[in-house]
Amino acid sequence: MALPRKLKLMNLYNEGNSYLGQTGEVTLPKLGRKLENWRGGGLNGNVKVDLGLSDDSTEMSWKLGGLDKLLLQQFGAATVGAIGLRFAGSYQRDDTNEDTAVEIVIRGRHEEIEFGNSKAGDDTEITVKTVWSYYKLTIDGETVIEIDIPGVKEVVNGVDLLETHRKNIGL
User: Fold this and answer.
1) Where are the beta strands (DSSP E) in 15-115?
2) What is the residue-averaged pLDDT of the chain?
3) Which pTM was predicted?
């Protein structure tokens, strides 16, 4: 029998500040490609041409219980990589007791801060949508994916998929 790795504990850091006990939920960035149909002369069907990252793959949403002044002070950040967030998760298989450390680091800025409903005596939660220009996924200390949009880098499993393209345009 084999059981999946399931998230057991997690934490979110905003510019190095821990949100332990405050983070209710994190929706990790979706990795997506923008693929467009192409059917050139002589082709008997369409092929999907890879045009880079999909438009909605640069989003991460997260929730905080209560109110956080640091988060609000970051609203309207001037640059695409102004804010650093780090998700740290500990996943475990219940059949083998094997633990896996997962870390996702992004740099970006907050696109939306939603305060939700406010009623005295009820739970309050802020929902944040952060758009990133830098992303790095590390599993057990090994970098699996690193994407730096302004730096024109996309490294997957140690291979920089944009290295030749940078060279071709003189970078």
Assistant:
1) 17-18, 23-27, 33-38, 47-53, 59-65, 83-93, 99-114
2) 95
3) 0.92
